[in-house]
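idk why but the lab printer keeps eating my pages so im just putting this in chat instead. protein + nickel (II) ion:
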Amino acid sequence: MELTWLGHATWLLKTGSHSILLDPFLDDSPTASLKSAQVAADFILVSHGHADHIADCAKIAKRTGALVISNYEICTWLAGQGVAKTLGHNLGGGSQHPFGRVQLTIAHHSSQLPDGSYGGNPSGFLLWLAAEKLRVYFACDTALFYDMKLIGSAGLDLAVLPIGDLFTMGPDDALAAVNLLHPKHVVPSHFNTWPPIAQDAQAWAERVEQETQAVPHVLKPGEKLKLE
Ligand code: NI
Ligand code: MN
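predcted complex ->
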């Protein structure tokens, strides 16, 4: 599989012949490596209703015909904006797709939609990728929570964790998250988009190497990580 950071909390995961886009925020992102018109996706995952995660979802879904996977409230809101294919979940629920399985995990955050509508509960995503037999966890926007231990208990090949602080976990709590999740590989997200969430990701990665068992990978927007 190939995971590309598109800046902020937007990720493009290629597995087998499928492209899964997470939390599309590109056209108004100061660090995005692409514009929304340039992205191809078969599936779009949306973790919660904040604009820095959903801003470009409807236009990409309408252009590509991608299936949007999110919570029920966000799927209903997107359908109202003309998105044809959505699959609403609730926390703990999952579904099977050609790429494998996706499950919504708890996240401690909030989820108001850009127009003030109720966005349901925020989530993370646990993916089982059929082609490579990999388990990937996107924590998405969340505080540290002890149930991460449970999420990691079946083994994780990769965890993508926010380190930006202010709106999500910061570097110290993200380090504690690595020690609860025990992933083989870890990638930081949701930092350096704007000054209030500026972080030294290299320094964080050095602490991951010293204080955890995981292998850190710090990407720049546009860079990719490949795992087999
Ligand atoms: Ni948020
Ligand atoms: Mn956010």
